[in-house]
Design goal:
Blueprint: H1 2-7, E1 43-47, E2 50-53, H2 54-69, H3 77-82, H4 85-106, H5 112-120, H6 134-143, H7 148-169, H8 176-187, E3 189-198, H9 210-219, E4 225-226, E5 229-237, H10 239-242, H11 250-259, E6 265-266, E7 269-277, H12 280-291, H13 296-305, E8 309-317, H14 323-329, E9 341-343, E10 346-356, E11 359-360, H15 363-395, H16 400-407, E12 412-417, H17 436-443, E13 455-456, E14 462-471, E15 474-475, H18 478-510, H19 515-521, E16 525-532, H20 545-553, E17 562-566, E18 569-579, H21 587-616, E19 619-621, H22 623-631
Antiparallel strand pairs: 1-2, 1-19, 3-16, 3-18, 4-15, 5-12, 5-14, 6-11, 7-8, 7-10, 9-10, 13-14, 17-18
Helix pairs in contact: 2-4, 4-7, 5-7, 7-21, 8-21, 9-18, 11-15, 12-13, 15-16
Length: about 625
C-alpha cells in the first residue's frame, strides 16, 4: 500500500503536492486529529499552528516508561525526569510536529482511505481468517497505552513524514564511482616486516632514587589512591534467617506426606538389555541365534560386530520407552527375550534382566527433606509479615538494632567496602550473597548516619541498612605502596628505554641499513604480517592501531620505518607490500556498499532538513501543562 503511495510522488517542483481524494471510510475506524490548529490550555507545545496535545504527550511518555520498566521495574517518574525522559519525548513529538507543520504549509494531505488501508494491512489486527478485527485492534492499542485517534493520526503522520523526507533526502544508491573508491580505500591490504623491541628486563634501568620515587608517586597519585569506603549495619530478612523459628509437628509432616502420596509412588522398573539396528534382517538373525541357544550377551557381541548397537538400561520405567517397546518389555518375565520389535528408532531385541516391583517411598525416607521444604515455604509466607513489623518498629523511632531484635534478626556490621563491594584487602565484603549487589548499591546512595528504605530484592528478600561512616578517597601513604611505586617506575623506565631503542633502530634503517640487519644487531625478533586492513582490530604480534595508521599513511613507493607502541613494548615496522582491492572481484559487497552509502547520505540530508525546519517554524512549550502532568499521581 505504502509503496504505491511513495512511487506516486517522486518529484519536487518548488513545493510538494500530494492531495489524495477520499471522503468516506468503507469501515469506520473513528479517525480524528491529534495535532489540531490553534493552541489550548491542554496542549504541551505548539509548533507553528500544530498543537501537541496533553493526551498525545501522556500516551508517549507512558509507553516509554513501560518500555524502560521492562528492564528496570523500580524506575520512577522522578528518575525519568532526572534522566531527561520528558525532554526526550517532547523533542520527538516536536520533530513530528515540524514535519506536520511543513506538510500543512506545502499542501500535503493524506486521505482517510489511505490511513484506513494501511491499518487494514497490518496483520497484528487480523483474526484467524485474515480479516480485520475491530475488537483486536482496540485491545492491542489499549495494551500499548494508545487510543484509536492517536494511533490513526500517527499512521497519517508517518505516511506524510515519510513522503516528505524521502522526497527531500531521496533513497538512491551512491554513485558507483564513489562506492568503488570507498571499497578500494577500505579493503586495500598491506604487509609489513616488524621488529619488536620489548620493554622487559633486558633494559637495565637500575633502582630509582628517593626523589624519583616521590615524583612518580605524585605524578601517578590516582593509581595509589584508595577508593571511598563505607561502613554499614544492615538487617537481612531471608527465609533462611527465620526458618529456625518454624515449628512443625509430626502430624503436620504426615498430613503433607499423604497429600503428596502420588509423588512418592515409584512405578515398576526393569533392568533391560537391548540390541538396536535399522536393519530388520540383522535383528531377525539375532532372534534366530537366541532360538538356537546362544545367550543374549553372545548375540549382542556378534551383532555389534555387524553394525548393531548394544545397550544396557537400568531402572527404566514403561513411560521412558516408546509405546511399541514398553508394551512388549513390561510383559516379559525376568530372563526372557523379546521377538523383533519395531519403533521409530529402528528394530530392537530386548531382554529383561531384573524386575523391580513398584513401591511407595516411606515417610521416614523423606521426612527430613519434607520438613525442610515445609519450613521454607512457611518462612517465605512469614517474610512479608515480618517486613511490615520491621517497618512499623522503625517508623516508631526504633533503631536498626532495636527493630532487628523485635523480629528476631541479628544486625550485621561491615567495617569497610568500596563501590565494587571489596574490602580494604580486596576480598568481597559480602562473599557470594545473592542480594550483595543491591545492598552495596543502596549503601552508596544513602547518606552517612541515615537509614535506607526497606528494600525488597529481586530474589524476594528484604533488607534495610544504616551508613555508619564514610571514608573519602585518599592517597595511600607512600610507605604502604613503596614497592608498587618502585615497580611502576621501573616499568615506565623500561618502556622509555624501549622507545629510545626503537627510535635508534628506525634511524639506522633510514640511514640505509635493512630492518633485518638492524634488528639482528639488537637481538630483536622480526615478524612478517600480511593482509592488514585500515580498520582491522590488531591481532597479530607487533601490530597496534598506531602501527597500522603509520603503514597506511605513507607512500608505498617511498616507505619509511614506522615506530609505535605495542603490547610488548615498541615496534618498528617497514611496509613490504600493497595488495589493491578490486570491487569487480566482489560485486555483491560493492553493490551493498553503494546502498549503505546512499542510506547514510539520505540520513544526513534528513537531519539537516529537520534542523532547517526548526529554524523556520516557531516552537513553544507549555511548562505549566507539563508540570501538571508530572504532578498527577
Amino acid at each position: 500500500m505504502l509503496n504505491a503511495l511513495r512511487k506516486g510522488s517522486q518529484t519536487w517542483t518548488g513545493k510538494i503536492i500530494m492531495v489524495i481524494a477520499g471522503t468516506a471510510l468503507v469501515v469506520s475506524l473513528g479517525f480524528g486529529d491529534v495535532f489540531r490548529s490553534g493552541g489550548s490550555a491542554s496542549s504541551v507545545a505548539m509548533v507553528g499552528d500544530v498543537e501537541i496535545s496533553m493526551a498525545r504527550f501522556g500516551a508517549e511518555f507512558r509507553r516509554e516508561m513501560e518500555r524502560i520498566k521492562q528492564r528496570m521495574p523500580s524506575f520512577t517518574n522522578e528518575q525519568a525526569v532526572a534522566m531527561g525522559l520528558v525532554d526526550e519525548v517532547l523533542r520527538s513529538l516536536v520533530g513530528e510536529a515540524l514535519i506536520e507543520e511543513e506538510a500543512e504549509s506545502l499542501g500535503v494531505s493524506v486521505a482517510d482511505i489511505i490511513v484506513r488501508n494501511e491499518i487494514l494491512e497490518q496483520t497484528v489486527f487480523t483474526d484467524e481468517g485474515g480479516e480485520f478485527d475491530r475488537d483486536r485492534y482496540e485491545l492491542t492499542l489499549r495494551r500499548n497505552n494508545l487510543t484509536p485517534e492517536i494511533y490513526e493520526e500517527r499512521i497519517r503522520a508517518d505516511i506524510r513524514r515519510e513522503q516528505l523526507i524521502r522526497t527531500v533526502a531521496g533513497n538512491r544508491n551512491a554513485p558507483r564511482a564513489l562506492s568503488d573508491a570507498l571499497y578500494r580505500f577500505r579493503n586495500e591490504a598491506r604487509s609489513a616486516r616488524i621488529a619488536i623491541i620489548p620493554s622487559d628486563a633486558i633494559h637495565d634501568v637500575g633502582e630509582p632514587s628517593s626523589t624519583e620515587i616521590e615524583t612518580y608517586y605524585e605524578e601517578h597519585a590516582a593509581r595509589f589512591t584508595a577508593p571511598e569506603y563505607r561502613a554499614i549495619t544492615y538487617l537481612h530478612l531471608t527465609p533462611e534467617t527465620i526458618i529456625g523459628e518454624i515449628e512443625l509437628s509430626d502430624e503436620d509432616l504426615r498430613a503433607e506426606y499423604e497429600a503428596r502420596a502420588s509423588a512418592y509412588e515409584v512405578p515398576e522398573q526393569r533392568t533391560v538389555q537391548q540390541i538396536l539396528s535399522p536393519d530388520e534382517a540383522l535383528i531377525r538373525d539375532g532372534r534366530n541365534m537366541l532360538n538356537a541357544g546362544q545367550s543374549f550377551d553372545q548375540v549382542s557381541e556378534e551383532l555389534a560386530r555387524r553394525g548393531a548397537t548394544a545397550l544396557k538400561m537400568g531402572g527404566i520405567e514403561r513411560a521412558a520407552l516408546p509405546a511399541e517397546a514398553g508394551d512388549v518389555v513390561f510383559e516379559l518375565l525376568a530372563g526372557d527375550a523379546s521377538d523383533p520389535v519395531q519403533t521409530p528408532l529402528g528394530w530392537h531385541l530386548f531382554q529383561v534382566d531384573e524386575v523391580i516391583a513398584p513401591r511407595r517411598v516411606t515417610f521416614d525416607e523423606v521426612r527430613d527433606e519434607l520438613s525442610r521444604e515445609m519450613a521454607l515455604d512457611a518462612a517465605i509466607d512469614s517474610l512479608y509479615r515480618l517486613s511490615t513489623v520491621l517497618e512499623d518498629e522503625l517508623a516508631g523511632g526504633a533503631s536498626l538494632e532495636q527493630a532487628g531484635q523485635a523480629v528476631g534478626i541479628e544486625p550485621v556490621t561491615l567495617a569497610s567496602f568500596d563501590l565494587r563491594g571489596l574490602n580494604a584487602g580486596g576480598s568481597p565484603a559480602l562473599g557470594e550473597m545473592a542480594d550483595g549487589g543491591e545492598i552495596m548499591q543502596t549503601a552508596f546512595t544513602t547518606d552517612s548516619g541515615d537509614d535506607s528504605i526497606l528494600v525488597e530484592t529481586e530474589a524476594g528478600n528484604y533488607f534495610i541498612l544504616r551508613v555508619d561512616s564514610i571514608t573519602p578517597p585518599a592517597q595511600r601513604p607512600l610507605a604502604s605502596v613503596r614497592q608498587q611505586v618502585v615497580d611502576g617506575w621501573k616499568s615506565q623506565a623500561r618502556a622509555n628505554q624501549a622507545g629510545i631503542a626503537a627510535e635508534r633502530l628506525a634511524e639506522n634503517v633510514r640511514g640505509g641499513e635493512s630492518l633485518a640487519a638492524a634488528a639482528q644487531a639488537g637481538r630483536y625478533d622480526v615478524v612478517l604480517v600480511s593482509e592488514l586492513l585500515r580498520d582491522a582490530t590488531p591481532s597479530d604480534r607487533g601490530v597496534s592501531r598506531e602501527i597500522i595508521a603509520g603503514l597506511f599513511a605513507q607512500n608505498p613507493a617511498l616507505p619509511e620505518p614506522v615506530v609505535g607502541k605495542i603490547a610488548e613494548g615498541y615496534a618498528v615496522a617497514m611496509l613490504s607490500g600493497v595488495e589493491p582491492a578490486d570491487p569487480a572481484e566482489e560485486k555483491a559487497y560493492a553493490e551493498q556498499l553503494s546502498i549503505e552509502i546512499g542510506r547514510e547520505r539520505g540520513a544526513d540530508i534528513s537531519s539537516l532538513y529537520r534542523y532547517s525546519l526548526s529554524t523556520q517554524h516557531e516552537v513553544s512549550t507549555n511548562q505549566q501543562a507539563l508540570q501538571a502532568f508530572l504532578n498527577t499521581p
